[in-house]
Design brief:
Blueprint lengths: L9 H9 L3 H12 L10 E7 L7 H20 L4 E7 L15 H5 L19 H15 L5 E4 H6 L4 H9 L1 H8 L5 H6 L3 E3 L13 E4 L4 E5 L5 E5 L5 E3 L1 H12 L6 E2 L3 H13 L9 E2 L2 E2 L16 H7 L2 H9 L6 E2 L5 H14 L5 H6 L1 H5 L13 H11 L4 H11 L9 H18 L11 H15 L6 H14 L5 H13 L7 H8 L1 H13 L2
Helix pairs in contact: 2-3, 7-10, 8-11, 10-11, 13-14, 17-19, 20-21, 20-24, 21-23, 23-24
């Protein structure tokens, strides 16, 4: 779905240069960074980071997705090669035991050690990091992301970061000058850019370090046993503090683009300063806003107030999640089950608009970036919201029963001919079962509503067989105008509450056509029986 496209036209490139879509705005930063191509002809390097102390989550998906969108946008602007690294910071010491893994007591005994040197609590891999890295790769492969996986431990232990670590030791004081003013007084006493790995306990130590020989990579420190140790900082025998590590990685790998959450703005600032101290150039990027829960509070993995990727994909397709992630990345958005139906319908609405749009509008359409310009042609005959209303009034229903109603509305619709609609029916059944059905309550009609419903029943009975949704909507509309309601809104609200059991609902002409005139008249009769 999201592999980079390399087919470009002059018109596309010209329109992309002017597009205000945020992936193109980000991509133009890279074009400005390397107007004549990256020195040496190497690929423009994109990076996403991942802390494998926990399982991959929806934030991981969003960061890789958004970075890939920028990468694809860059391909529309330039012929320069690119590469995306998904970097796992698995050399990091385990600070606390996650709540969602087994064998917590075992993990607690290894606190402070690098994640790659801690047994796998699931008992499937050589280490805790190996387990979570495997989950990350399966996770990214599931969505077809084009990336190269990188392990911090492999890079440290394999010597790939040795020269960069020597650079940190050479510029030790310059890095301290950046970091110490940002720390509390007590933290300054023990802060060190380099964290030695204890040769006795294997713990990544948070202790002051003395640079003995920067060119040789030698450091001295007091071990957790109290002994003064002189050892190499190279080959995986030390780990850099993470802001220093981030900067070192940018410089060592030549990272050109990396985005981060708004909560890391200060970290980006400090790491960028350190990268310059090391003689490098910080990458381009932007800070995206964090998701909020339905109460407007920041989502936290430890609180468990977020929505997981698997939960979203139980009730909506991945394209709907991609659409949600694409829209307004610098604006805080509520992420909860209630946003899924709107995201599904908005995705399909924008997808339906795409074929008839001019090129500049297409480049600003979210579906262009979700599908990298290869937008599928199929459209839906009904909305997801309408499906939810249908299965809501049906109660316990099967996929086949829903198709039975759909054939009344779209005679030639079949699961084989409309596989995406078939998939959407499955999502609608799951969502209605778990979130719609428990909330439905059909109230009794009152006042002018009673006569209006009687008129609706009579007018529906008088319609010719096979009346269109538009003809039915006209009947509903005329009754609402003449039945004594203060506003048409009051009439439609009455229909939703008395017939469907909800405060909001679909275009009633479409719903009645889909559910069937006779079935709809039965709903009216049930409502009138309560009056």
């Amino acid at each position: 779905m999201l592999s980079p496209a390399r087919i470009m036209t002059t018109d596309l490139r010209s329109a992309a240069l002017d597009s205000k879509a945020w992936p193109f705005e980000e991509a133009r930063k890279l074009l400005k960074r390397y107007p004549d191509g990256k020195p040496g002809g190497g690929p423009v390097l994109f990076e996403t980071g991942y802390g494998p102390s926990g399982l991959p989550h929806i934030g991981t998906f969003n960061e890789v997705l958004r970075t890939t969108m920028v990468r694809n946008a860059f391909h529309a602007l330039s012929d320069q090669p690119t590469r995306l690294i998904a970097f796992s910071d698995d050399m990091d010491g385990l600070r606390k035991v996650p709540d969602n893994v087994p064998n917590g007591d075992m993990l607690r005994a290894h606190l402070g050690k690098p994640l790659t040197r801690i047994p796998d609590p699931f008992g499937k891999f050589d280490s805790f990091a190996a387990h979570n890295n495997a989950m990350l790769r399966q996770f990214l492969d599931r969505f077809g992301f084009d990336y190269d996986f990188a392990s911090s431990t492999e890079y440290y232990e394999g010597g790939r970061f040795d020269d960069a670590i020597k650079g940190v030791l050479r510029h030790y004081q310059g890095i301290l000058d950046v970091m110490l003013p940002t720390l509390r007084a007590e933290r300054r006493e023990t802060y060190s850019p380099v964290l030695p790995v204890s040769p006795t306990s294997g713990i990544v130590l948070q202790v002051p370090v003395e640079v003995v020989d920067a060119e040789a990579g030698t450091i001295a420190f007091t071990d957790d046993s109290g002994e003064r140790i002189v050892q190499s900082a190279l080959g995986g025998r030390s780990k850099l503090q993470w802001k220093v590590d981030w900067a070192m990685r940018w410089v060592a790998l030549g990272v050109d683009y990396e985005m981060a959450g708004k909560d890391l703005i200060d970290s980006v600032t400090q790491s960028s300063k350190i990268a310059r101290v090391l003689g490098g150039r910080p990458p381009e990027g932007f800070n995206y806003e964090m998701f909020l829960d339905e109460k407007g509070e920041k989502i936290s993995k430890s609180k468990g107030n977020g929505l997981s990727l698997d939960q979203w994909l139980t009730y909506g397709p991945e394209e709907s999640l991609a659409f949600f992630a694409y829209r307004e990345p610098k604006k805080a958005k509520a992420l909860h089950f209630g946003v899924i139906p709107r995201a599904v319908d908005d995705y399909w609405q924008f997808r339906g608009n795409y074929p008839t749009q001019e090129l500049p509008q297409k480049l600003g359409n979210p579906v262009h970036h979700i599908h990298d310009g290869k937008v599928p042609e199929a459209t839906l005959p009904v909305t997801f919201g309408l499906l939810l209303n249908l299965v809501g009034v049906m109660g316990e229903a099967s996929q086949e029963q829903v198709w039975g109603y759909l054939r009344n509305y779209v005679p030639d619709a079949t699961p084989e001919h409309d596989p995406e609609l078939d998939r959407l029916i499955g999502y609608a059944l799951a969502y209605a079962r778990d979130f719609v059905a428990p909330t439905l309550h059909r109230r009794a009609p009152a006042g002018v509503e009673i006569d209006a419903l009687r008129r609706l029943d009579a007018d529906l009975a008088a319609l010719p067989a096979g009346a269109s949704a538009e003809a039915i909507q006209n009947v509903v509309y005329e009754i609402g105008k003449t039945a004594g309601f203060d506003t048409l809104r009051d009439w439609f609200k009455a229909l939703y509450e008395t017939l469907l059991g909800s405060e909001q609902g679909p275009r009633m002409g479409s719903f009645i056509a889909l559910y069937g005139v006779e079935n709809s008249r039965r709903l009216i009769a049930e409502a009138l029986a309560k009056a």
